[in-house]
User: What shape does this take?
Amino acid sequence: MDPNAQRPDPSAGMSSVASTGDWPAQAADLIVSTVGTVRDRTTGTILTVARVAVFGLLAVVLGLVVIVLTIVGVIRLLDELLPSSVWLPYLILGVASLIGGLLLFRRRNPPASSGNTSPR
Assistant: This one.
């Protein structure tokens, strides 16, 4: 072989790839990259959804625990501060919850009416 001869460019096409003898490594690289892409699109998405579900469920459970403990603490605090029995703290929290619920109920969006319905 002539040392001054030019080697074929591996990126020039399939004919030069076959002539260089490096096609098994390139085929293996193509398979590895294809499998990696498929794995990222499937398993990566599934892992993300699973993480969101687990952390979301954890946040909901911890939020409920905080809400329950806060209500218990407020009832105990009002029971110590007010001179009557425990019914007065229950009444105060019940009225506050009722007012909060009514305010949220007024802010709701009524369902859109469909069709040609005339008002009565």
Summary: Residues 24-106 form one domain. The first helix runs from residue 14 to 20. The chain has a mean pLDDT of 82. The helical segments are 14-20, 23-81, 87-106.
